[in-house]
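Dear support,

I submitted the protein below through the web form. The confirmation email said the job was done, but the results page showed an empty box. After a refresh the structure appeared. I'm attaching both so you can tell me whether what I see now is the final result or a partial one.
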Amino acid sequence: MLKIAVYGKGGIGKSTVTSNLAAAFAQLGKIVVQIGCDPKADSTINLLKGKTPVPVMNFMRDYDRDPELDEILERGYGGVCCIETGGPTPGLGCAGRGIVATFDLLDELELFEREQPDVVLFDVLGDVVCGGFAAPIREGRADEILIVTSGEKMALYAADNIYRAVENFRDRSYARVRGLVMNRRNIPDEEEKVRGFAAERNLDVVADIPRSDEISRCEDEWMTAVEGAPESDAAQRFRALAELLLADGQDAGLPEAEDGRSEEARLF
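What the results page shows now:
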């Protein structure tokens, strides 16, 4: 099972990257679970045509009981299993604790045993890597981290905070940083800035996602670019990233694509 947590500055495009990556894995024939770890509960919305699952924390608050799996899970594009943690009433409680409570519940409900996913994706709020928001990268829940960034100063600042936090806790069985996803904003010298940042930290830039009208158009129609514009440059790059990550996962027993890495996997 390939387990990946996606982090980055708030608003940098983590949910766009995660949901397109989930759709790309699904197109490759993989069973995928995507868990949105954000009180806004909007991580999976473009896999579900504008619908959202009932968030776990909302359900528990509204019904004062633990839900059954079919009460919090929706199946989206390509059969992706979509779950949202949700969060506390605004201004009350701790969203990080909500993530921990959700993970404990999913363990009790035997989500992974029942679904037998090939890939699990955690889409995590902002650049917070302490407390509950670090839960996806602790205790073996995720094996690898993708950091989404642009060349903007604050995006790189957040990426550095995430990288340093993970490095500081390497000896505590945290996940490793697999690399950066450059989600372009078309600022001056963006590629140079991101690749220079990566080189200083001995990180790979594992994907280079263009600023794309196709992504925006598809999201306006509640779709990922992988679904709504499959021949677009952006969609090809998401599929290439999925192929790269699957190739990395061969040591974990995931089957290799029949024809190996495609030409798309060399686009970045």
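Response: this is the final, complete result; the empty box was a page-load delay. The mean pLDDT is 88.
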